[in-house]
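Take a sample.
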Amino acid sequence: MTQSDTISEARRQLLEKFRRGELRASHGALEPLAARSRDAVAPLAPGLEQLWFQDRLASGAPINNESFTIHKRGPLDPAVLERCCNEIVRRHEIWRSAFPAIDGKIVQRVDRNVQIQLPMVDLSHLAVEEREAEALRIGTEDAHRPFDLNVAPLFRVRLVRCDEQYHRIYLTVHRLIFDCVSVERVFMRELAALYSAYSAGQPSPLPELAFQYSDYGAWKQRQASGHGHAAQMEYWRQNLSGNLPPCGLPWDRPRSAEPTRRSAMETCTIPAPVVEALRELGHREGVTPFMILLAAFQVLLYRYSGQDEIVVGGKTNARTRPEFEPLLGSFVETVVFRSAISAELSFLDYLGRVKTTVLGALAHSEISFDDLVRELAPQRDSNRHPLFQVLFSTRAPFGDFPSGWDLTDMEVHSGASDFELFVEFSELAHSFAGRFVYSTDLFDGATIQRLRDNFLVLLQELVSNPYQSVSRVPLLTGQESRPDARAEKQRELVAPQDEIEERLLTLWNEVLGVYPIGVTDNYFELGGHSLLAVRLFSEIKFCFQLDLPLATLFHAPTVRTMAEVIRDSGVRAAAPIVPIQTNGKKPAIFCIGALNGEVILFRRLALELGPDQPIYGLQPFSLLDRLSTVETLAAGYIEQLRQWGERQPFCLVGYSFGGLVAVEMARQLREAGTQPPLVVLIDANNLAACKAKESWKDRARRYRHHVNQIVHGAQGLYHLADRIRANLVRKIHKVSTTLGVEVPKIASDVAGRQLLAAESYRAKPYPGKVCLFKAESRPEFFDGDEDLGWGEVLSDLRIEEIPGDHTTIKTGINLTILAQKLTAAFENLHGSKGKAAAAGG
């Protein structure tokens, strides 16, 4: 990054002050803050509406509870402490407010007389080693109790006496009435000042407040009607347009229709040497620690999901006026960070993108999250957080407190969260403390522990060498590579026995970022997935001049077995039937892939469908003589299945081109008297029928889509090369057919042959059950055809939409949704069969 690309040190400090809430906004263009009449009902401050709705949708799960631990060293009088808490409640309306819905409108209702009692538990009689565990149990139990939003106050205080000279005060607060700055800079300072005065028999030293939190809410609502609000909203419309890619983390369990919102927490520490390197990088490049941590975290999400766009939520401090400083309340604005990422980017280049994204979001953070949701997500899933499912934030270090007082958090967790994953780091003097709060509906603890450890390794690698590609940064240390690191350390690393194994071992090290690897280690157990497999096989082709299908990994998942495949020229790798998941008692599923013939993409589908669903792939690499037409390929697959011994009814699943083959196989099987119970098409269009009905406007739009793809950076170049190759294949085949000569090798590849077969295929009527799962976003594939050209030939066709486009329909959360719908289709099929059998009996 050149000097001209960096922001100045003054601007960096200004941004840091903004993030810490120390930046004062100019008053010239803002309406002055005014005290409203002190009636019982106040308007809801912006940003609280979504908190309220999410809380109600959580069915009692304490998703918005936060717990702090106040440490008091020296003697403490519980009666004085209780008096202090009640004085704070009297001073701040928001801490004696409830949030009912009145006449269909959510309001802040201020109760005039709220008195709290301070329960105390004495643990001084326990052994010293027992007090910590029991204190944490008490604090956790309190944090797990939900609040009734109709009843004030929305906070609880519990006193734990560890001994005469040390007490803990567990403060559990609902997010509707606080932010971290409230607790650190207002509550703690007022509590210490009041306790000192009351203990000495003196009156409160605190001046009466000129404003209340509801004055801030009313002021924000007036600001929202100005021109600046419209301009900021336009920024978000442009930056969050289209389908926001969902979180693509690999879940351990599919999303439930009725999530429990239960969560757990894993903590960590970023050590001082890494923090020092992080701060040096930030100073050199003119970026804040938050930007570096966010960029590294988004790289981690990219490496886990393979998505080229990463969307996470964040928070900013909205205390931009001096009048807000002495107030308790929620002054947090939620923002959305959306960044494009690609494999060839260096971390330094990507960090520049993230810097631009963060600066843009902060500059337009006056828009409340409530307004963003209403504008950009009017129709959404009530069981998921709107716009994003992963939240990332950092917090400035707590300041110095009066002698004898201290504040910590992250020890106690409420046990519930509205996010799939919430990651937060808190700055300490020389390190960062972090927590990973995750949904236990979706993730196992071991999965998040591995993700956390991967992040720490990734961050260290990135800040030490920011010039390396984001796709090649190691995620694991040389000593650790699995969820159970101890088991990995104990495993025996088998050394290579020849040059082929040595070369393969080097490739696996580079692609997987795992060191060391033994020749008997399993690719998938080392963290390999289909996106990395593409790169691995590209390297294998370069090194060995051997073009192997990706499904080779199912047959040969270790370096040793892969070396055997290379030695015998890939004979085993070309088998037409690929076992992906062989266990289970349900009827088997046979899957056919896209033009390239690869079936490795169905491995993720198998994981989503569960261990009781047998699933196999059908690949064409040993059937080159059958690739001239869809009909001959379908017949070839049926012949292979009969030779293999498959006699039971099985279902067919076809993605893209594979859908044509699946329909043709079903038709031929029906003619032979063995019709499959169900055919599933995944975004597969009947190409000839669609083109026959395509208008000139639609064709122009499709060509315009191709042009847009071509000018879109590196990915566009790949798209252009693919289009050129497809047209070249057509022309070569046409000339070869005309001249009666053999097709040159350049046009005899599997993808080229299957493309020509697809274009010449004319589907015949088929009356069996067919489910078509099509992508919601179809920038290229014949939007005018709701049934993708199948309506005239498939008489029993059911169509459902899946989020994403033709490529992303099979990745991340989209694949999970697809698997859920596919499971439901199979269950309905089996259920209807059972009912029919019962009726017949």
User: Anything to note?
Assistant: The mean pLDDT is 83. The radius of gyration is 31 Å.
